[in-house]
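Thread: assembly with ligand

MN 10:42: here's the input set. Chains plus the small molecule as SMILES. Want everything predicted jointly, not piecewise.
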Amino acid sequence: MSHEQEGVIKYQLKHHLESLSDDYSITAINAWRTLMYRLQLIGQDDARYEGYGFGNISQRIEFNSEQFMISGTQTGHIPVLAIDNYCLVTSATPELNQIHATGLCKPSSEALTHASVYLQDKKIQAVIHAHCPEIWRNTRKLKLSHTTKSVAYGTPEMAIAVNQLLQGESWQQASIFTLLGHEDGVIAFGENLSQAANVLIEKLSLAVAIEQG
Ligand SMILES: [Zn+2]
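BT 11:07: finished. Tokens for the full assembly:
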């Protein structure tokens, strides 16, 4: 199976190359991003995906805001990010395949998928896109929701698929799904970063338990 290139931005991006104001705190998102990196759910590895960086993390800037902070593209190799490695998505229109963003870094190639998750419910405040082989290959045994093999990452089709997936069920009960058309791709989300990270780690432990017998 050939792997689609990570890091290739497929949406139309209007990017303002400008430093983010110190008013934006990355303290919480950056701590969780460091943990995700340590678990290699976000990272970059010559042996995985032809050496492309993988995974990304985002957080709404305020409860009622449509804007969210997201880790930048091509940052997977960096153990601890700085504010210049983040980007603020100021508006996102998945059905038009459009993103407006500000920052010294461009948003992750999967920012549009994050945007479609946020659009489901104001209560969703954080989204993590991880690459986790154990969870992904045990999608059925773990009875996880998933998008189908024919839906590629970062496309308007993915936005529609996410919409259908999350509307069809109570997301509070299963705030995680896998992307079967995107090798090892998993999306977890929640009312805060801790909730999103915890559902991911819990499913990882269950997947490891299955594989260890
Ligand atoms: Zn990915």
